[in-house]
Amino acid sequence: MTTTIDHGAAVAAETAGFVAAVRDADPSTVVPTCPGWTLTDLVRHAGSVQRWFTVLLRQRIQQPPRSREVDLSLPAGPDGYPDWLAGSAAEAAEAFAAADLDAPMWAWGADQHARFWVRRMLFETLVHRVDAELALGRRPEIDPALAADGVAEFLVNLPFAAVFAPRTAELRGADRTIRFTRTDGAGDWLVRLRPDGFGLDPDGTDVTADATVRGAAADLLLLLYGRLDRSADRFDVHGDEQLLAHWFANSAF
Fold first, then answer.
1. Please, what are the domains in the chain?
2. What is the reported pTM?
């Protein structure tokens, strides 16, 4: 999908919002959308992912890495994690500036270029920033254009995620279709489940889907990531409920 979004700049902005949310918060606050995690766990995870992806970008790897060991430079205690997360984003920004993001590079998803990792880092950061704000009783705001790009990024890459999301292997069907439609701007995605797999159907504009979910781009993004339920009144849902149940039971990322 072609996009005009500056994913590197968005990583910086999302991380800044994440840091601001947690800086004065109790690090032991429970994160309901990530069962078993506290804010410290959430920040550690987000910063570790950023540092790991940064290492991959610097190395511009051409095949799957053999190890995930990275010098994380973790802080001495929970109070140091906000600044540590900010430092993770700063290191990532340096890597973005130094890299040719259009250069060929191994990636686990559909886009085999360095830019894949910047876009993936963005939505890892954005979703966990939302997790932090929800844990703190706030109503997160997500830029609609960014959210729509996140929906596309999720659906494009999900068919390749079985190595760490094994239940996606169950997303099969006899030519069954699910449409996700954005109600606050342009955005329509048709997913087709086939006997041998699933994926976005680029020619599905005029297809009558077996099930349809309509909602604002930000809500669709959080739905796909399991932060909202399709029964929420912010969604307009029609069609085969069993098909939708099958999708959401097996598409956790």
1. 7-141 (1.20.120.450), 166-250 (3.30.1050.10)
2. 0.96
pLDDT per residue over 65-94, tens digit each? 987 788 899 999 999 999 999 999 999 999
- The full 3-state SS of the chain, as one line of letters, equals CCCCCCHHHHHHHHHHHHHHHHCCCCCCCECCCCCCCEHHHHHHHHHHHHHHHHHHHHHCCCCCCCCCCCCCCCCCCHHHHHHHHHHHHHHHHHHHHHCCCCCECCCCCCCCECHHHHHHHHHHHHHHHHHHHHHCCCCCCCCHHHHHHHHHHHHHHHHHCCCCCHHHHHCCCCCEEEEEEECCCCCEEEEEEECCEEEECCCCCCCCCCEEEEECHHHHHHHHCCCCCCCCCCCEEEECHHHHHHHHHHCCC
